[in-house]
Amino acid sequence: MTAMPASQTKLGRPREFDSDYALEQAMRVFWAKGYEGASLTDLTEAMGITRSSMYAAFGNKDELFRRAVERYTEGPASYGIRALSEPTAREVAESILRGAAAASTSREAPHGCLGVQAALSAGDNGLTAQKVLVDWRQDGAARLESRFLRARAEGDLPETEDPRTLAAYITTVAYGIAVQAATGRSEAELLRVADVAMNAVTWSHG
Amino acid sequence: MTAMPASQTKLGRPREFDSDYALEQAMRVFWAKGYEGASLTDLTEAMGITRSSMYAAFGNKDELFRRAVERYTEGPASYGIRALSEPTAREVAESILRGAAAASTSREAPHGCLGVQAALSAGDNGLTAQKVLVDWRQDGAARLESRFLRARAEGDLPETEDPRTLAAYITTVAYGIAVQAATGRSEAELLRVADVAMNAVTWSHG
DNA sequence: GTACTTCCGTACCGATCGGTCCTGAAGTGA
DNA sequence: TCACTTCAGGACCGATCGGTACGGAAGTAC
C-alpha cells in the first residue's frame, strides 16, 4: 500500500517534499525526545509536512519510527556495521567503542543513542516501538557475536575467550557510553572509558 | 502545605492508606513504564488510592516521581551505597557491577534500572523527570569517584589509575548492564560480563 | 482540453493526558 | 456533642494525544 514498487507508472500529482529529508528529521526528533515524547505535531513540524502527508507516506507513527530506526542504522550508527569488517577482533571492538563515543556526543545531533534511549521503557502506546529497539539491540549483539566467533576460528581471538560473553561485554560498554553521553559526559571522557574497557580482554593482536 | 512536620498536632481524619506502600507501587510503575509512559491512572490504580489522595499526599506527578527515585535509591539501588563501604577499591567495583546485574534482573521487579530507563530521553512534559535522573546518575558517579580518590590516597589503588576515569568506566558498565537487562539478558550472562569488566583495571589487591 | 490521481491543508474525531473542584463521610480534640 | 479538619470518590476541566475525513489545488497521461 504505502511503499509501492518504483517500477509502477507514476500517476497523479507527484510528491512535493523530500522523503529522505523528512525521515532524517523525524529520526532526530525520536532521538531527542524518545518515541512517546515525540508527538505527531513535533514530528510533522520538523519534517516540514502535514499530518496527511506523513500518514500517506509512512503509514502511522509506529511505521515512521521503524523507518527512522532503519535510517539511524544506516546513518549515525553505520560505524557499527563498518566496524564488523575491521581485520582483527581487537580493531572491531575498538572501532565500536570509539564510534559509540563519537556518535553519542556529536554536536550536530542529539546526545546518546537512539537505539538505547528512544524507548528503553514504555507505556502501553510505546510497546511496539520498545520491541523494535529490543530487536535492534539483540540483532547488533548477534552480529558482533558472529564476528567474534569467526575471529576465534581464524585464530584472531584466544580460544579462552567466549564470543557470546565478549560480544555482550562490548555492547554493554557501548550502551553504557550512550547513557553517559545522555548524562552529559564529553567525548574525551568517553574515549578514555573506551580505552580502559579495551584492557579487559586478552586480544591475540595489538 | 503538603508535607507538614510530623511534630504538628494531628488534626482531622487520619490518612487511611499506607504511604510507604503507595510510594513503592508508584516506583514500580515508573520503573516499568518510564515517566512519560506512566499515566496518572496507571499510578493511582497501582497505589490503590484516588487522584485526590495522591495529589494531597505527594503534590503532583513530578514530585511523586522525585519521591519514587528517592525510594529506589534507598531500596532496589541500595547496593550502590553499600558498595562504597567495601574495604578495597576492587571490592567496591565488584559489588557495584554484580549488584547491578542482580538488581536489574530480579524476578520480583521490572528489568533494568529506574535511574537509567525511566527518562533517558523525554518530551516537553518529561524534562523535569529527565533532569532528576541526570542528577541522580551524576551524583552516583561523583560518589564513586570520591571513593576511588580515597582508595588511591590509602594506597588501595595504583597511582596510575585516574579515579574520575575509573568511576566513569565502572558506572558505564553498570548502565550498560541495565540496558542489557531491559533487552532480555539473563543475570548469569550479566554476571559474566561483570567479571570480564573487572579485568580492565589493575587493582592493588585481589 | 479532459479524465484521473494524488497532492496538501484544515477541521475534526474520540480518547486520554495531568490536574482541579466539590461533596459527603469519617475521624480528631475539647 | 460539637466544631474542625482531612479523608476518599468522582465528576469535570482545558489541552493534547494519535489518527481520519473532506475538499480544493496541482500535477500526469492521453
Description:
The first copy, chain A, is mainly α. Chain A has two domains: 19-72, Orthogonal Bundle (Arc Repressor Mutant, subunit A), CATH 1.10.10; 77-198, Tetracycline Repressor, domain 2. Helices cover 66% and strands 0% of the residues of chain A. The first copy, chain A, is built from ten helices and no strands. Chain A has helices spanning 19-37, 40-47, 51-58, 61-74, 78-83, 89-104, 114-117, 127-153, 163-183, 187-198. In chain A, helix 6 runs parallel beside helix 9 (163-183) and helix 9 (163-183) packs antiparallel against helix 10. The N and C termini of chain A lie far apart (52 Å). Residues 1-8 of chain A have low confidence and may be disordered. Chains A and B meet through helix 1, helix 8, helix 9 and helix 10 of A and helix 1, helix 8, helix 9 and helix 10 of B. The structure holds a DNA duplex (30 and 30 nucleotides).
Defining key terms:
about 210 residues, elongated, homodimer, DNA-binding, mainly alpha, Tetracycline Repressor, domain 2, Arc Repressor Mutant, subunit A, disordered N terminus
Break the fold down into its secondary structure elements and pairings.
Two copies of one chain form a homodimer.
Chain A: H1 19-37, H2 40-47, H3 51-58, H4 61-74, H5 78-83, H6 89-104, H7 114-117, H8 127-153, H9 163-183, H10 187-198
Chain A binds a DNA duplex (30 and 30 nucleotides) through residues 9-17, 39-41, 49-53, 55-56, 60-61, 125.
